[in-house]
Amino acid sequence: MDTLLAICLGVSLSAACGFRVFVPLLVMSIASLSGHMTLAPGFQWIGTYPALVTFSVATIAEIAGYYIPWVDHLLDTVATPAAIVAGTVITAAAVGDMSPFLKWSLAAIAGGGTAGLIQGTTVLARGLSTATTGGLGNPFFATIELCGAAFTSILAVMAPLLAVGMIGIVLFVLGRKILGKFRRVQPTAMPPVIS
Hints:
The chain is built from seven helices and no strands. The protein has one domain. The protein has helices spanning about 1-15, 20-35, 50-65, 70-95, 100-135, 140-160, 160-185. The protein has about 200 residues and is mostly helical.
């Protein structure tokens, strides 16, 4: 059961990386320092005060950057691969009692994959916002993403099973909406080829 909770914790925190890269790392550092989370061997550096200060500064800079027009798009360019890497590291840091091959495979697929999927969705939403509002709606989306990162991170530490269930429901609903849009597009008939 402890391994299942650790996997749920890691995947939930990784999903939060898709919203903001450094918020889950900050929450993970605080949880470790306060004794609410045990980090896997080799990842104890996340629960140190220098890491806490670094994650705090990085979180503030990341949050501020998303409220500046055009900087938010630049941050999305950098944040997409960073979210995948952070999601992978977070899942590996949460899962302790597992063979290294299985741990890193799980971390890359479940952690990095979940972070990348959420990040990709936020990039598409920001692009749509920019196209429809000329970028004026982007601060609204930045606030929603920040709240999503904070809520998901805190819920992951407090109730990992509930957090991973919530993420699963959100991804299911989003997947149905996206697939529904693709199904509604009717293929056009090809004109006959005259030879």
